[in-house]
Amino acid sequence: MVAQPVSPVVTDPAAFDPYDGDPVFELHRGGKIEVTSSVHVTDAAELSKAYTPGVARVCTAIAGDPSLARRYTWRSNVVAVVTDGTAVLGLGDIGPTASLPVMEGKALLFKEFGGVDSVPIALDCTDVDEFVETVVRMAPSFGGINLEDISAPRCFEIERRLKERLDIPVFHDDQHGTAVVVLAALRNALRVTGKDISAIRVVISGAGAAGVACARILLQAGVGDLAVVDSKGVLHEDRVDLNPVKLSLARDTNTGGLSGRLVDALDGADVFIGVSGGTVPEEAIARMAPDAMIFALANPNPEVHPDIAHRHAAVVATGRSDFPNQINNVLAFPGIFRGAFDANASRITEGMKLAAAEALAGLISEGDLRPDYIIPSPFDERVAPAVAAAVATAAHTDHVARL
Hints:
The chain contains 16 helices and ten strands. The protein is of the alpha/beta class. The strands form two sheets. It has a six-stranded mixed beta sheet with strand order 7-6-5-8-9-10, covered by helices on one side. A four-stranded parallel beta sheet has the order 2-1-3-4.
């Protein structure tokens, strides 16, 4: 038998790169963020202050009064962006290493849009106990924790336990960032259609991280008739296949006693919010109430294509940047953390999230409001300052501010 040649193993990444010339990969080459000095050390005197022996005085002071770390270290302006890589964008469980480009991107957006420093951290563990314990042990280095791309229902337990154990803001952006922007967009969509938030019926497709958080914030904002649908149908208390998170949500929603599938729930609904993917048939959308509002947020393929949605809805939003009314988390999380840091908040409350949504919605004036402009652009320079100011004020109102 003639031995078959073995393909050489390329151990030097620089020796061959199949992505050379690809502009996306070129942007990511070497990573998208770096650590830079905030002070300069140019002589021995400055070295002695920045490091030994001067630094020992600062360490001793912090040992005596740990609250001084906020003033004399980077803690007051740095977030840990933490993931386990189990629910990355629309890619699913791709693991911690493959998640790094997204976590770096998140850190980039924190800095560019909110002036907040952050460090991407991809943990090689999926056990809830291990994950929580690891983050708790890292927490002294950071002023806040942004959880990212962690699969449901684990993400709910992880966030709850970290909030219980830490006295710094903990925020799962896939849940609450999405919910804040959805509420802001809905408030302005209601202004366009002339409907009242207490009188509408909302259907949410998806009972994962984003779907649960959207449902919760809409209930707090005054929506009284809301149904959530997962892959097996409408959530209701009689279903025996619900995990604790879904069962709790079923008890707090579906006041109309709906059952059946998504297409059944949409009959007569005022609002559809899609955060689950899949395709909703046009005939189901056509049965929604007059002046319906459709937020089809799955990426890259919305649950309802905007061209179809516009045939039956007064207001249409997506998660994509190439259509009007993009529901983009970057409108929320940089300003929310900026405001929390400015108030030295011990946590992010429901009131702070509601305030962020109100601030976002309020940036669209009555004269500018129209069906294709219900939410500001991420590049609107007013966004982060407005959200931050509202969040900081709400932190004082909710008695979690420490300034």
